[in-house]
Amino acid sequence: MSESVIILLVLIIGVIFYFRMKKRKENKILKGVSVRKNREDEVWKTIKEFLKKEGIYGKEIYDSYFIKRNHENYVNPIQSHYLKNKKKYEIKIRRWQKENERKELLASGKPLEPDYLKNIYVLCFSLRDAKTNEIYQPRCIECEVVEKRIDKKTTDRKIVINGEKDYDKEMEWIAPIKAAEEYKLAQIYKKQQKKKKK
């Protein structure tokens, strides 16, 4: 009698634990979706703001993709030894120039601006004519995400458009990353479809 009660208790605890873990996992997925949706809304608003500044009306956003630009001192590990060394040399020159500028500012008594890493994104998008459904040449803009801390819990997030960039030149480094992401998403989708069939 006592063994069956113990087994029953273990089963009940196991079921409760399983459902709690399942709910926690679902909440995490929903959080991820909401963050993605917020980012997509930001992208849409930024493109609309850019189009308004350019005086472009009657066009709708057909497709968009955004990616964070690597820091100017980022050395790509996949590149050749020659390109890595070239990049390292560029970094040394840039650091030397910044150090000279810093010394000049200190000597003149001007305040030093804090050197912080910028959150720069490249936003690629295509437009479509609302009446004719004609798809226009894709374009891309560079944006900087500026976050200012208001207090301990809240931060103000602002997107500053730096300007339009050459689409073909930017796609040289964006295209391989985008293709890899699309492949990864396709693989995840295939796995989900297999699970549904089972």
Report on this model:
- With 198 residues, the protein is an alpha+beta fold.
- The chain is 57% helix and 22% strand.
- It starts with a helix and ends with a helix.
- Residues 29-36 have low confidence and may be disordered.
Q: What's the short version?
A:
With about 200 residues, this protein is of the alpha+beta class. It is built from three helices and four strands, in the order αβαβββα. The chain has helices at about 1-55, 80-110, 165-195; strands spanning about 60-70, 120-130, 140-150, 155-165.
Q: What topology emerges from the helices and strands here?
A:
Layout: H1 2-54, E1 59-68, H2 81-108, E2 119-129, E3 139-149, E4 155-165, H3 167-197
Antiparallel strand pairs: 1-2, 2-3, 3-4
- Number of DSSP helical runs: 3
Could you report the average pLDDT, rounded to the nearest whole number?
80
Lateral arrangement of strands in the main beta sheet? 1-2-3-4
Low-confidence stretches: 29-36
Structural class: alpha+beta
Shape: extended
How would a textbook summarize the main sheet? Answer: 4 strands, antiparallel
Residues in helices, as a percent range: 55-70%
Strand content: 15-25%
Q: Nearest-angstrom radius of gyration? A: 25 Å
The arrangement of helices and strands along the chain is HEHEEEH
Distance between the termini: 39 Å
Oligomer: single chain
Number of strands: 4
